[in-house]
Amino acid sequence: ALPLIIDTDTGSDDAVALLLAAASGLGDIRAVTTVAGNVPVETGTRNALISLETAGRTDIPVHPGCARPMTRTLSTAQHVHGEDGMGDIGLPDPATTCHHTHAVETLLSSPHRHPGELTLVTLAPLTNIAAALLRDPDLFTRYRHVYCMAGAADLRGNVSPTAEFNVWADPEAARIVTQAATPEKVTWIGWDVSRKDAVMTPTDQQRLEQLGTPMATFAHRINRTVADWARDVTGLAGYDLPDPVAMAVALKPDLITEQEQAHVDISVTDDTRGQMIIDRRLSAPAPNITLVRRVDETGFKKLLFDTVTTPLPG
Ligand code: BDR
Ligand code: CA
């Protein structure tokens, strides 16, 4: 199984990504780090603990990290994921508690113990990662690979016409990440991919509900407010699962059906805050990021449904 460090602002789709990493048999989570984003960092930490417990994994350390973006005010997505980030279904408090080592320390020290072996998957605003890069500019070279749920390579935003939440929430951090990236080490999976190839249709939602296993029921119920928001605000029949798609790509890169390498910068000016600036000129600088453009929808959903029906350990 792939040794993983996962950075997350655990809301309802991050939670499903954690199930994939913890229970598919493809991942070996060494640590989870949390950051402010969908919800305040304390809430995201609570949700990460609950999600890991749901997968039967009370042994994985969860390290709280940065409580606000580098320079901006925190704007959460509680209107989408619920006040608690998990569909407001009244989840009980976790039995486990978080670890005392800060997320940024964990991101910095973990690859020193396992050089070149760990895969980093980021599902959140890139604040912790940028803070770690300020301390160690060569950090990415110490990881096997870095997969980020970030941006929208077709420039279709979800918080503004041209910006995706994780990049928009902390554009300065995202910019630091692009400046440290090389396409061999860093792959971004944008929101557009989940909208094109991983929509949970009403039929998929019904299937998840009817499976009846603890993980399937959890995954279905916590995405209640996301499903409502998709239907009522965006007029779409299904909700998307950006973080699970990014995690699936990390666990099973053969799910990628289309990708490109490009030079990416991030806008930090107010009108286009968080927009990806993808340079496709013939004279463009060398690519810095591999951008996933499409994934295999059938393969992704098989991984999802197989995982939530896997018997829990013990
Ligand atoms: C991203 O923002 C959050 O709402 C999701 O958890 C995902 O990480 C999608 O834009
Ligand atoms: Ca997230």
TrEMBL record:
Boundaries of every Inosine/uridine-preferring nucleoside hydrolase domain copy: 4-301
Source organism (scientific name): Streptomyces atratus
Protein name in UniProt: Purine nucleosidase
MF-aspect GO terms: hydrolase activity, hydrolyzing N-glycosyl compounds
Keyword Cell membrane: no
InterPro entries recorded: I/U_nuclsd_hydro_CS, Inosine/uridine_hydrolase_dom, IUN_hydrolase, Ribo_hydro-like
Keywords: Glycosidase, Hydrolase
